[in-house]
Each structure stands twice: as C-alpha cells, then as structure tokens.
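Possible regression after last week's pipeline update?

I re-ran a chain I had predicted before the update to compare outputs. Posting the input and the new output here so someone can diff against the archived version. Not blocking, just want to make sure nothing changed silently.
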Amino acid sequence: MDLAGRFSAIQLRIQSACARAGRDPATVSLLGVSKSHPPETVRAVADLGLRLFGENKVQEAKAKISRCPSQLRWHMIGHLQTNKSRDAVHFFEMIQSVDTLALAQEIDRRAAQAAKTMPILLEVNIAGEGGKFGYHPDELLKELAQINALKRIEIQGLMTIAPWTPEPEKVRPVFRQLRELRVRCEQILGAPLPHLSMGMSGDFEVAIEEGATLLRIGTALFGPRSGAKRWEETT
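New output (post-update):
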C-alpha cells in the first residue's frame, strides 16, 4: 500500500473507532511521527492534508522543520533534556513529554525569555515500565500544583506510551488509567485538561475508545523507515 493508501486507511479506522465509542471524529487528531523520515516524505504526507507532525529529537527537528512546508504544526514527543529546552520552545508548538518538575521549570524559564506561553502535556509511565521515561502517577499528583503555578507553561493534558503488544486489547487498562488520572488532575487544578495523547500504530483504535485526543502514528502512516537512517546521518 502506498502513502496515500495508508493515510486513507488510518482515517477510516479512526472514523470506525469513533463510531464504536460514540465520539465525533473531529475530537481526535492524527499526529504523524516523522522521526528519521526526510522532509520530502513529510511534504508528501502534508500534500494529502495532514498538518500535525511530531519529532523525537530536537536536533533532527531543527534540521528538518525549516525544509518542510511552513503551515505545518510540530510537537515534541520524545524525551527532552533540559539543555535542549530553549530550542524545543522555539521550534515546537507543544511539548508532550514533560516528565519532571525540573524540566517544566526550565521550559518555563525559556518560554519567558522567548515571551511566549508553552503548551505542554505531562508524560506518565502508567505501566511502570523500567527504562521508560514518565511520571509515576503519585509523583505527578504531588508536583502538579507546582507545575501549574509556572507562569509561562500551560498544562493541556497527559501523555503515555503503552507497552508494546501484538494484542492491543491488553493495553486498554493503560489507556483507561490515564483517562482516570486526568480526572484526578482536573479535580486538583479545578480546570479541564483537554488532551490525552495515547495510542500509536498498533493500538490507536483502543486508545480512541478510551478517550484519546492525539494519536502518535508513525509506521502505519509512513511505512518502514527504509533509507531514512541515511537522511539522519547527513543532517
């Protein structure tokens, strides 16, 4: 299946999942994970109508974004080191992977320097997987008020990466727990958090049924990354 076929198939699957869940498809946004794919491929997807893309590394994004159509929107979705916060604030409209108070404070400082407010999502390691980044839910609840007090940060929701499994139904509890955690966060903040970033190529339909608003889809959209590494190595 070519790129246009994959994009169309994903759209149909999103619509079907929304119908099962009784949701309006307009409440779910597809984010194309363009990690290691060249600007030409991003442009080809943009020509099909996609406008939202996510990058995992700041350095790759810096090299790529200026070579892509200017109307595209970009989210930082990979682990962010504090020393890359200035560039992240400059290049991205949202940082989805905020996982410590120290990182939030640095983003706040860099956003103040840039005279802007930075929308963020708080990354949660719901499954407690070793080697993965993200807040433990209890730690998030303890630090939530401090993060919310930062003047140049706007918390818009939560993000998680579910464990990989060939059986998507097995990660439904992970998505459900993130949705339930959002409710607890909203109660603490006294304000709505509109976004749940959850669901990837192998499990996004289950994520939609559990309330996802942002889907991070790479392989199902772009296909295998054959040749993409060569582009990375030249940047």
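Follow-up from reviewer: compared with the archived run. DSSP finds ten helices and eight strands in the chain. Marking as no regression found.
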